[in-house]
Amino acid sequence: MFTQKSILVVGVGNPYRCDDRIGLMIAEQLRKILPKQVEVISHNSEGVSLIDLWKNFDCVYLVDAVSSGGALGKVYRFDAIAKPLPENFFKNYSTHSFDIPATIALAKNLNSLPQKLIIYGVESKDFRMDSQISDEVSKAGLKVFRYIKKEIEKAVKQIE
């Protein structure tokens, strides 16, 4: 069971790289509707800085674009505490020297992981410098928005 202010949602991405915006867009929409005891952050910095962001939270949802060669717009859900993330999902386009799998591995070695760490990935393809997001990725983002909303509503009911 989690306590108040123990749930964090992090939307990861670059607002200027087409489909890479999806995590930021989902975070922006969730921020508008989630209860006040849930913190929502948009993150477009170095991956290793995520460790400081989630250090005071029990439950973290992280949303990012992925590039694994799967169908454009496919949604993936990973329980990063239960098993390691597939590294090939996050490395093909990352401009960060510390990507999400490396950050999670470091946090595990530092005993700095939250109790629950759920990663949602949206299969993306276009990482050019532009603000246009593909229709498939945008539609998948709406699904992820609904999934996270439902999971968090259930968790918040357990808190109350």
Word description of this protein:
By secondary structure, the chain is of the alpha/beta class. Helix content is 32%, strand content 21%. It contains 4 helices and 5 strands. The chain has helices spanning 22-33, 50-54, 100-109, 135-159; strands spanning 7-12, 38-43, 59-66, 75-79, 116-123. It has a 5-stranded mixed sheet, with helices on one face. Helix 1 (22-33) runs parallel beside helix 4. The longest helix has 25 residues, at 135-159. The protein starts with 6 loop residues before the first strand and ends with a helix. The model has no long low-confidence stretch (mean pLDDT 88).
Descriptors:
5-stranded mixed beta sheet, single chain, alpha/beta, about 30% helix, 4 helices, about 160 residues
Q: Helical region count?
A: 4
Instruction: Let me know the average pLDDT.
Output: 88
Which class best fits the helix and strand makeup?
alpha/beta
Strand order of the largest sheet: 2-1-3-5-4
Structure summary:
With 160 residues, the protein is of the alpha/beta class. The protein contains four helices and five strands; from the N terminus they run βαβαββαβα.
How are the secondary structure elements laid out?
Blueprint: E1 7-12, H1 22-33, E2 38-43, H2 50-54, E3 59-66, E4 75-79, H3 100-109, E5 116-123, H4 135-159
Parallel strand pairs: 1-2, 1-3, 3-5
Antiparallel strand pairs: 4-5
